[in-house]
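--- STAGE predict ---
source: upstream dedup step, 1 unique chain passed
mode: sequence only
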Amino acid sequence: MIGGGLAGSEAAWQLARASVPVILHEMRPERGTDAHQTGQLAELVCSNSFRSDDAEGNAVGLLHAEMRRTDSLILISADAHQVPAGGALAVDRVGFATAVETALEDHPLVTIERREITGLPPEDWDSVIVATGPLTSPALADAVTALTGEDKLAFFDAIAPIVHRESIDMEKAWFQSRYDKPGPAGETAAYLNCPLDRQQYESFIDALLVGDKTEFRSWEKDTPYFEGCLPIEVMAERGRETLRYGPMKPVGLTNSHAPDSKPHAVVQLRQDNALGTLFNMVGFQTKLKYGEQVRIFRTVPGLEQAEFARLGGLHRNTFLNGSVLLDGLLRLKAMPRLRFAGQVTGVEGYVESAAIGLLAGRFAASERLGNAVRIPPPETAFGALLGHITGGSDSETFQPMNVNFGLFPPLEQKLRRKERKKALSQRALAALDQWLNF
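--- STAGE serialize ---
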């Protein structure tokens, strides 16, 4: 295994569970990255949320369910270190990463080596999973590019700021989940909400548009953003109302300090650690310079005295054009002893990355044990996501993709949206059980 992020950790766990010894190489802390802050395995970078845990109405929630049924270390650890987040599954970052690292360190079939693998793995490594993530080291990325003859793709990903809870003015902010939707633990007030009236919102948009932003280097200027994780200032540039219909939408919320007054826009913050001392600004990934972030975000009511545990940032992500370079078992066509997993394959999101790591680990284990290797049915979330990155997408316009019901084969019967999602989920879990029982 090369890479100890979510995908690499999950792949190593699946191999060890199948009684296959595995050596896990992680370059941190010997060599850092532009986004990581620690040397822990499975460190969460841009958010602490695994998104919706609704297995019947949301494709990522369905993926959670499928991973739980396959004894995913990532989901086991996430469930054990959950923090309130409404209907989402969010975790205490440190507790989660510690749990993953401890489980792998304690497993007798897992050996962890802290060093960077530069270039292609040695030829005597006959079965290798590369799970180096979107921050693959330049030496390895260049070696793979040279091997495949395919230009590597890249996009910018942005990180949201984290605020100290004690610095938020609770005379203006209030706790409430949108529409009071209960989370997995039954809580209906998992988010902190900061309201803006129309004038405050318009001033905020003006500040975003003129704020001093990170400058791109010459070789980065043509790198596209990932549409699912746009910086807030880029969203603002697309239209003054864009944020009000995105992360700052005011619907489903009632200001407990002024119940008769509807906010024009709302900034939501989600708990980021088990102690409840840190809160993440939801959807506020940004490429504003640090000083500008502090100045502009403190114009939000309730955040005037905000103290930031971490400010937002921007990093360049790298991924393969999997639909051209990978076969259906995630092996590199140009060198089948190399199998790729995680975000470097062109999936987007923590859960999706871990899920592809899970599949890579199971595929590699079956091969090593001489067993038949079967890919998951396309009706499952596993199969839908795998199919997209290994041939089901347009190679000319390929971009990282979150799991979504649009990737699933359609149902024969016509159903309304809610019933259709539920039927797709039920079909997926039934197909998964058949696959697991084979």
